[in-house]
Amino acid sequence: MSSENIPKKRICVVVLGDFGRSPRMQFHALSLADNNFIVDVVCYRDSIPYEQVMNNSNIHQHILKEPPEFGQCIPQFFVYILKVLWQFLVLLNMLISLPKPSCVFIQNPPSIPTLPVVWLYCCFFEIKWIIDWHNYGHTILRLKHGPNHILVKIYLWAEFYFGRKATYNFCVTEAMKNDLLQNWNIIAEVLYDRPAPMFQPTNLQDKHSLLLKLENDYPILKSWGIATTNEQTNFTEIIDGTVNEKSNRPALIVSSTSWTEDEDFGILLEALQEYETAAVKSNSLPNIVCIVTGKGPLQFQFLSLITKMNFQHIVIITPWLAAEDYPKLLGSADLGVCLHISSSGLDLPMKIVDMFGCELPVCAVSYKCLDELVKVGENGLMFKDAKELASQLQDLLKNPRNHSRLETFRDNLRRRDQRWESCWNTTALKFFQ
After folding, report:
1. Full-model pTM
2. Are 37 and 58 spatial neighbours (Cβ–Cβ below 8 Å)?
3. Is 246 exposed, middle or buried (0-12, 13-18, 19+ CB in 10 A)?
């Protein structure tokens, strides 16, 4: 039989969340498809995935029906139980309705009901299954309810009772690998997050076009600066048909977020307030445009705090960017800021991986195991509080015509560039074959 007539293996990828906002699982799906697997993605979808995913003929998305809004008069505990039961039945029904795969590959968290449903399905049909441990679900739930809540205890038991039954496991850090083995007797292979090919430095023409779009969508940028035509933005100008950076441009810092409890954006606002105070007294500090992009439950709380700030040298905007524009923004910025504090202390922020792909240095809030990604003084800095972040912003952004330390960080990122595809083929492919 020729290789062309050999049936392709099917892999079922389960994402009990918004697939469009799950970049690591999208990269997994693309890597599987590129290696000639048929990929059935079972997921929710509120955001549009990457164009490469949407256009790949080997990837088929199967959208789960969202749980209904249960009555407000029902106690929250029972609402949670009803939602889990709904998801359990809908997910199990979806899996049974699809062609039988050779493997089911799932993202954790969420653990409930994903792990018990997939375990039940794979046991019945004798299918191997693989967990990709991004974090621990019980630690995320603990942020909201505290460590002693009954839901947290149930979640903790279920996560590791069923997690131990998977055929294989991946995880995102050496720290998590060690914790899984020592505390839960789970053997996992470390597969670090790596930037996708679209995360690259942005050329000046693309930067100019993106900034024009942002300044049209956010008039405060125009009124705050001097941009009035298609020939110039607050950062760039066209001279003799060529895009140039302005010598007196503001600094551009960017942060991305899901607006959840594991990120404290009060730290950023407090640091910017200290920067504002310093900028009033100093001519060496540039103005700042701060862009915070993302969607999530705490966004309106942050926006209400912004309205109370009285900045003269800083403008903050919170756009939701198209998938193709987000890498361009990172590649256009001077500095990235990450406020992610891992609920488990064992995972690494994907947003920093994306920033590094765009050769964007970062200032990141410090926590255990972050040094597996951020090398202080080499590709960025870490801070513990707003005061330390404010000091780092002033040090890195002063004298905007000579960002020598930032350029050193960029050079280091350029030399150490590693991409997802080669790492995935080396580490993960053999578990699916």
Report:
1. 0.82
2. yes
3. middle
